[in-house]
Design a protein that fits this description.
The structure is a single chain. By secondary structure, this protein is of the alpha/beta class. It has 2 domains: 3-84 and 170-278, Metal-dependent hydrolases (TIM Barrel, Alpha-Beta Barrel), CATH 3.20.20.140; 92-157, DNA polymerase, domain 1 (Orthogonal Bundle), CATH 1.10.150. It is built from 11 helices and 9 strands. Strands 1, 2, 3, 4, 5, 6, 7, 8 and 9 form a 9-stranded mixed β-sheet that branches. The longest helix has 27 residues, at 86-112. The protein starts with a strand and ends with a helix. The structure holds adenosine monophosphate, zinc ion and fe (iii) ion (FE) (2 copies). One fe (iii) ion binds at residues 64, 75, 189-190.
Amino acid sequence: MKFADLHLHTQFSDGTFTPEELVLRAQNTGLAGIALTDHDTVEGCARAAAACAAGQMEFIVGTELTAEHEDIEVHILGYFLDPQNRRLLERLAQFQAVRQNRIREMVAALNRLGLALRAETVFALANCKSPGRPHVARALVKEKLISNLDEAFERYLKKGRPAWVPKCKMSALESVELIHQAGGLAVMAHPGLNRTDDIIPALVAAGLDGIECFHTKHSTVMAERYLEIAEKYHLLVTGGSDCHGFSKKAPLIGTIRLPYDHVEKLKAKVAERKSKNRG
Ligand code: AMP
Ligand code: ZN
Ligand code: FE
Ligand code: FE
């Protein structure tokens, strides 16, 4: 049997692995294919693709868009995207700029609280276009302004704490369209995490292609529930570990093993859409 992990993060967003380290671990855990799904970016995909090609592993270009529908946060995974697609890159660049401004706002709030952190320190540490709160937390630890990452979130960065700044999100309906025009499939990420079931019909109406039934934080009961929902709405089924490297205890890669027939179905849908667009 062949398996894939279709939800993985690297240093190009808030994971701790380089694309090469991630691919090596994927190989060591016996996966036949992976997708890289860094938040609001496809920056790491070229390196991951090269590492996969060298290791005879299948690579799927992906991203995880931070979106919302009717004030409900929902993450939309995009798969098989053209990483050069102009509109996709332009829109991602806008959201990346907003993320960078958010870092500056969080740092300013920390400064007002008497913590001498500089935004440049966070950017240097993040070294990617799509920085987030984990980078602020890591910078606070690096500068010895706090003793560990959990404390950084508990005291300053989690929702409602004094340095928390809300995140700007793309409309979920736009994110589906953006992924489609870039040649990709749009998939609702970890629906069991965000209590997003109510918005599934609206996303389906917008052309949602799939739903992530298998996820590290989904119980067996949840997975079964979303498999039923997938069947009801004719959605493709995906799954992934949502591995962020060492940022959350042990790396999760390999803990979700999606049987490859689901990958083949995704590929068939991409191919079908391509031929339709040509015809
Ligand atoms: P952001 O996208 O900037 O809002 O940051 C979200 C990231 O921060 C995700 O990877 C979360 O897992 C991580 N995160 C959120 N809350 C905590 C927490 N209390 N402790 C550690 N990491 C967290
Ligand atoms: Zn993340
Ligand atoms: Fe997510
Ligand atoms: Fe994720």
